[in-house]
Amino acid sequence: MKSDISYLYKPYLHTRELMPENQETPIHFLNERTTPIEYIYKRNHFLYPALDSAAFFLPVVGEVERPMVFPYNYIKSLPSKTIKMVLECAGNKRAYFDPKTYGEQWKDGAISQVAWKGVSLKDLLYFTGIRSTAIEVAFEGYDYGTRKDIDRVFPYARSLPLEKALHPDTIIAYELNSQPIPYDHGYPLRLVVPQWYGMASVKWLKEIRVIDHKFTGPFQAIDYVYYPNKEDDFGKKPVTEIKVNSIIQQPMNYSVLDTGSHSINGIAWSGHGTIKEVELSFDQGLTWKNVELYQDKNQQHLWTFWKYAWTVEEKGEHTIMCRAKDSYGNIQPLEAEWNRKGYGYNAVYIIKVKIE
After folding, report:
1. Which residues form the Oxidoreductase molybdopterin-binding domain (predicted)?
2. What mean pLDDT do residues 179-201 have?
3. Other Cβ atoms closer than 10 A to 214
4. What distance in Å separates the CA atoms of residue 235 and residue 218, rounded to the nearest whole number?
5. Mean pLDDT across the chain, nearest whole number?
6. Residue ranges per structural domain of the chain
7. Can you tell me the distance from the alpha carbon of 257 to that of 218, in angstroms, rounded to the nearest whole number?
8. Tens digits of per-residue pLDDT, 241-251?
């Protein structure tokens, strides 16, 4: 009898940093529509926070008619919804920028696809009421620390414009993939903002504050800003929606293959709309071939799996290029829009393989 050694053949998270913990999803080896919890990428700015019983009470204060504190169990008792979505770090693929940019050198794995369950933020704000002076909603997490560029302790905090905060799919989540949110992903409560990069989905939610001014915390006014110039801040703009993007999962870059038939497969995604087309080029972008898409009909916030049957008899080195197009006409560019903090890389994906 052969022993079962399948447990030996499994992917692992790829460590970028341990303190704070930053780990990449092994995205090239996963084909599940929902990323298993053990493979969801981890992005932290500080060490994990120490939580106490106060973490199970969520204050909503500021420019509201009736400031309230919502107990965890009360939030769970409210009508809920489940949001299946791409969760992508704004720095995903940062390692591919040229010139290089500073920060975690993420490759392809600062992205996962998950299912959140929770209550719409607008439903909580219905109980408190919103004053006519309100223009943003700010969110503070329990995680905090000293920034390297400012010798002060800051919590991780960000805001949303009122319109985005009141979108029915912006939720206060308490479950991830049908179980309580794990501690390292924001337990007990996490803000979840579909369509936007992951920096918007504040973990370990401590307080919601409706405000009558623009929020200027460092994780919004300094970080998560596109700075197109190396030496000055001219032309800066905030990082918000996920850009149209794709990767080739298999074969991997610099693989050695035999002649004959091969399956090229991958994923494509966009924060704005859905994926309508994925194309491959084998001649440096002179011509493009459509691939077969595998989509759910109602996949507003999900990535799209794709596959292409490639028959190759010519030995030697081959370059394969991949680009995606979404339902709003956005298409991956040949070159990403360089910015000095390395956000939003979405250039045409390129691998090289050798046929022997």
Report:
1. 47-217
2. 98
3. 11
4. 18
5. 96
6. 14-238, 245-355
7. 48
8. 999 999 999 99
